[in-house]
């Protein structure tokens, strides 16, 4: 089987069959990662550039590790240490890199749509590692993989996405994916952090009460407040946010059932999640990190081997 697309620009562009193929391939690669020898020659002689115009820790390391596990040749590009600081344009930068015979580009950029722009201009396969407030497709895929691993299914699952929905590319990718795969989605947070027409646009439920969301859901995917993307204050203070929307052990223990806690990271401990929740028995946050490598291996492998 092959993916229906040459690039991974967003979950919005994938079919349910594409998603199933990526998740099933990721499961095979996760088995590989449990072996004493974790490296396979699947992408030998494939050259991949990691083009990061924004700071990143988990996503960048996860992609680099996935590439190395597949035996690809990798080039790491950081905008802060490049000719971008001298005024070089995005297209010039990439064309210069492509002249070195690069096959794939993993790209993170602060501008929404930057990977889509590149995909129209250059022949290499593009993987979106996060663009502005648009999408973060591999995070959406690894979140889905983690849920499927835990529950054995996505269809019919009740997932609450809690926090800064307005500025979260993770939320967008999760909503697109979960709806395509038959899950139910509720978004929860302060009214100022939830887009006004999201219910109609995305087909999700909306609540402004975190307890209501937790009582409804099987899984709570908790997001951090993205202060760096807010050009004006949208709530009174982090302390007030934590009191109204932070998730602590007392709140979870008061539920009539057990739910699963997820977080894409980085966690602002004591704000959206207390440490005893993030590190507690409800949490599969470290599973998400582990699964990220297998999912990114699957995406790289499938795009590199697609017959164009």
Short description:
By secondary structure, this protein is of the alpha/beta class. The chain has two domains: 11-135 and 289-304, Rossmann fold, CATH 3.40.50; 137-288, Aspartate/ornithine carbamoyltransferase (Rossmann fold, 3-Layer(aba) Sandwich).
Notes on the protein architecture:
The structure is a single chain. With 308 residues, the chain is α/β, with parallel strands linked by helices. It has helices spanning 16-33, 58-69, 90-98, 114-121, 137-151, 169-180, 198-202, 210-216, 238-245, 249-253, 275-278, 285-304, and strands at residues 47-52, 73-78, 104-109, 125-131, 158-162, 184-188, 205-207, 219-222, 260-262. It folds into two domains: 11-135 and 289-304, Aspartate/ornithine carbamoyltransferase (Rossmann fold), CATH 3.40.50; 137-288, 3-Layer(aba) Sandwich (Rossmann fold), CATH 3.40.50.1370. The chain is built from twelve helices and nine strands. The strands form two sheets. It has a five-stranded parallel β-sheet, with helices on both faces. Strands 2-1-3-4 form a four-stranded parallel β-sheet, sandwiched between helices. Strand 5, helix 6 (169-180) and strand 6 form a beta-alpha-beta unit. Helix 1 (16-33) packs across helix 5, helix 1 (16-33) crosses helix 12 and helix 2 packs across helix 12. The model has no long low-confidence stretch (mean pLDDT 92).
């Amino acid at each position: 089987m092959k993916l229906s697309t040459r690039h991974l620009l967003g979950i919005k562009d994938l079919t349910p069959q594409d998603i199933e193929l990526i998740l099933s391939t990721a499961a095979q690669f996760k088995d590989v990662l449990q072996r004493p020898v974790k490296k396979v020659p699947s992408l030998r002689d494939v050259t991949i550039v990691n083009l990061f115009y924004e700071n990143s820790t988990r996503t960048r390391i996860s992609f680099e590790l996935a590439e190395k596990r597949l035996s690809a040749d990798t080039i790491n590009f950081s905008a802060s240490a490049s000719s971008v600081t001298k005024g070089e344009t995005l297209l010039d930068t990439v064309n210069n890199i492509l002249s070195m015979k690069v096959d794939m580009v993993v790209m993170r950029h602060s501008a929404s749509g930057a990977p889509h722009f590149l995909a129209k201009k250059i022949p290499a396969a593009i993987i979106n590692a996060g663009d502005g407030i648009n999408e973060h497709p591999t995070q959406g895929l690894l979140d889905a993989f983690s849920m499927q691993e835990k529950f054995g299914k996505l269809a019919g699952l009740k997932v609450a996405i809690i926090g800064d929905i307005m500025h979260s590319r993770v939320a967008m990718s999760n909503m697109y994916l979960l709806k395509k795969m038959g899950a139910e989605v509720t978004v929860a947070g302060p009214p100022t952090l939830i887009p006004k027409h999201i219910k109609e646009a995305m087909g999700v439920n909306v609540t402004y009460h975190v307890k209501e969301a937790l009582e409804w859901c099987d899984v709570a995917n908790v997001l951090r407040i993205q202060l760096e993307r807010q050009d004006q204050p949208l709530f009174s203070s982090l302390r007030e946010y934590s009191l109204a929307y932070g998730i602590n052990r007392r709140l979870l223990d008061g539920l009539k059932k057990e739910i699963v806690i997820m977080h894409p990271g980085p966690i602002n401990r004591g704000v959206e999640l207390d440490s005893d929740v993030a590190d507690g028995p409800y949490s599969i946050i470290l599973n998400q990190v582990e699964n990220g490598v297998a999912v990114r291996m699957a995406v790289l492998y499938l795009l590199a081997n697609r017959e164009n």
